[in-house]
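Bug #77: duplicate submission created two jobs. Keeping one. Sequence:
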Amino acid sequence: MADAAAAGGAATSEGPTRFIGGIDGLRAFAVLSVLFYHLEASWIPGGFVGVDVFFVISGFVVAHSVYDSGKTSFTDYFTWFYRRRLSRIMPALFAYVLVLALVGMLLLPSSPATKLIDMTGVSAIVGASNLLLLWKSNGYFVAASEFNTFTHTWSLAVEEQYYLLFPFLSYFLIVRRQALPSARMVTLGLTWALCLGSLVAAWHFTAVWQDFAFYMLPTRFWELGLGLLLRCQLDGWSGRKGLPVSASLVSPASGLALLALIASFWLVPGHGFPFPGALLPCLATAALIVSVWLFPGSIADRLLSTAPLRFVGKISYSLYLWHWGVIVMMRWTTGLESLPLKLAALAAMFALAIGSYYWIEQPLRHSRPVRSASMLRFFGAFAAIGALVGAVTVSMALLRPVVGLSATNDRLVWDPYSLPEAAAADCSVSRQETGLQGGKEIVFTPQCGRGDLPQVFITGDSHGGAYERMAFELAGKGRTEVRVISRGGCPLLDGAYLAPRPDCDGFRAAVLENVRTAARPGDVLLVAALYTPRYRDEWGVPAAPPGPGVPTTIGQGAARAIAALAPFNRLGLRIILEAPKPTLPTALFRCADAWTRINPYCDRKTDVLAAEQMLRRSKTLEMLTMAVAATPGAEIWDPFPVLCPGTTCRGYKDGKPLYFDTDHLTGYANTLLLPSFVKTIQSGSPASSRAAQDINPGKIN
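Kept job's structure:
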């Protein structure tokens, strides 16, 4: 992406470079397709293939840029090549990372999503953001990726990783092609093999692991390699000799190639990408490069050489960098739904891109001190600046709770995982965390334990983990050890609307073994989970309907719950099942600030009628009641009366949030619920909670 926008023009197959406007125009097509796709996907559904167009152009122009290196020593060539690449790519990238990290520190909420943003920004500095996104995100096409200001740097990372191979290939293919012809032929064969292998890998991983196919160099190398091989082939077509087509056919053929490229912006499906979806735009790009390079005046060349397209092509690298930051920050704040906001976003993108091009890209690229610096000083300076940018980015992430403007930075109110200095003035509590089968176990041990309460185990999916604050306070005030064992997406019980999760079996077995090892008869096991269907998630995506495997009757769901609880019951534990909590249609952390409340996402109410919530949870509540009735020593604890004491379930109580997103409790809600939970433990009366009063036995199947 960067160097597709970096070449200062095109050239004949030999000799000094000359300007060819069609290459700039082709870059403009690529960046504008990506820009408009990100701005409104329905306008250009396949616009993301503009990145593939950039990859082919980049492979071509970077290969051409080394033809006149004049280097014979590999060491000299290697350092010369990286000096040019660093000068071209990194200054604008450093500026982008710093500015977006600063704006994010000030305006974005403190949340798991913004932690990933910070991590992605740091990884972008070292060309590894694609690796992080593959590891941490759920794919490029998911909603969460649309709220990460550094998601788009994955393509820069792919190119930077390609540059680790390029000097070794290009040295024999291009730089020493005449002096070492046999080595050139071997390297040419190797490059073809790498491209074909990459194409096969793209085909394979698109089917079995699309995220890998999308983000990784092994499945993208063929696109960059196509541009490299095309440039090498131009040596055989010098002066248009040896061309496989007649010159008279080039103009109409180039027009067809341009139409094919434009068509690919609307025809490429996301699920078949990058293979075979990237084939058409990449091949069309290769054909257009040949046309504008060797046949000035062809239909495609005339269209692509218009002044507006050439200008957009010149600033395309900066435009690619800054357009995404503008879009994402508007998604977080004002929203981007209306046409006026989209037009404002366009204006901001181009203003930032033009400023970046003229004030950062060009001055540093042509700076005499930069060009005349010794290699040691040059690379040392870039390493030091990169380290400084990374350190500043990390520092701003850490400073967000201190200097950020978002209300969510009040961690003790919002964050259920932020712990006060002590749960009780006279009793400190230690916290120890270990991994457990894809989840984690957190043990809170009071330093002044007296055993006022039995040992408590809290287990479940992320909603079990979100009771960390309550567990900490319970350990300190109850003077007893409390363990929180959780894994996101893995409840101990499936609920009445959830399908079985075989991938959670290992975690559930580990929970049982952990409890069997540490628990004593009479200890308490709290089983928590998200049982009530969401309205939508924090990104505005509506909840998916239940999939196959969901119990068809409440009785079937209860039977599964009884079977899951039986091993714990045999250990002599008091089993407390958390009744379904209310859920909200709006994630409070996204709408907590003045600059976010105008976002259309925040138009949805944060208050819901209690009767509606009762209805939404009724099926699971009946299932849990049946399970309790069949499990000696089991009971239900219902947070509902505390969270929703009136006729309306509200997101805030006394001006403080009860929920962080649409369904996970805040730290404040944890503290609010602690007395109710302690009372349930102390009562020791099975099914003593108010939940039983909500049940209509006639509905039980």
